[in-house]
Specification:
The protein starts with 14 loop residues before the first strand and ends with a helix. By secondary structure, the protein is α/β, with parallel strands linked by helices. The protein folds into two domains: 15-223, Lysozyme-like (3-Layer(aba) Sandwich); 247-349, no CATH class. The protein has nine helices and ten strands. It binds zinc ion (ZN). Zinc ion is lined by residues 26, 92, 202, 208, 210. It comes from Promicromonospora citrea.
Length: 352
Amino acid sequence: MFDEPERGRAMVEPYEITDEQGTVLEVLEPDGGPAGETAADPQAAPDPGPAPADGPVVPQAAVNIAPRASWGARYADGDLTLEGPAVEVFLHHSVTAQLSPDASVEAEAEQMRALESVGQSRFGTGISYNVVVFPSGRAYQGVSWNRRGTHTGGRNSTARSICLAGNYETNEPTAAQVSTAAAIYGEGKGRWWTQAAPLYGHRDVTSTACPGRHAYARLDDIRAGEGTTPPSPGEPGGLVVDGAWGTATTRRLQEELGTPADGVVSSQSVYWRDRNPGLTSGWEWVADAQGSRVIAALQARTGMPSGRRDGKIGPQTVSALQRHLGTPVDGVISRDSLAVMELQRRLNAGRV
Ligand SMILES: [Zn+2]
């Protein structure tokens, strides 16, 4: 287990982050591996959810981890699909911006995209870590649990990684961060890693300060595996960015546009229902549509001329929304709609 990394993938330089004293705060390096098995499509390998566990059944939904789509993952989801659970888990720190515990979901999503850009530019495999935990305690999925990342050189195929966003050589992790990391480590036993998979600090196996002395000092607390995550990774913006336009998205949109906030889009033509599978809960589909105030307000916000603001969803309104949001214009709200994801991001940021 502790042997040298294979160097099958030639000539990839490790990515090192050092401080002014030359201390290596973090070093990322891919394992060797068959180059032909890369999968560039980030949609190709969704989190399979609970793996067939060899241990006791673990209760579900103990942790909230915001999905990759929520922060706008743009690149590959690692480079290989991994079979079976991990046998060890490593704690890292990212040595990127030190956000405050009160940071917005939008600010955290931006950090996730920045982390992804680093991994993509260095290794071409998207974000390096499996899960990233911010000082707020919110957790975001990086490289999927069943995909190989670039976090713990030589053991990327057999280990998984929990990364604290920031520098924990110089900063203390927050209580919320430690609690979330512990919840994730506990939840992953028998699910993402074996029941017996130990948790180490990156520096236990590599010449680096990672995860930083202050985080390293909390390893036993995290190993205890008891903790909680904030109730929704979409808080405090309020919305999980999933590309599905349901009641919660409508309610936030109504609040934003100043129309009655009941979460319902009333009186819409049933003709458009099946053509727009991304419109989910809280849509009132009828044969004789009268339109709704929130859609009329949205039509105004997206610049449709006043004579066409009929309060009814349809290809013209959807196209106007897509143009307004800068997403591809096809006039339909598909499942996992890019336009709805962008709308949700903007609602979380308070700028529709
Ligand atoms: Zn590390």
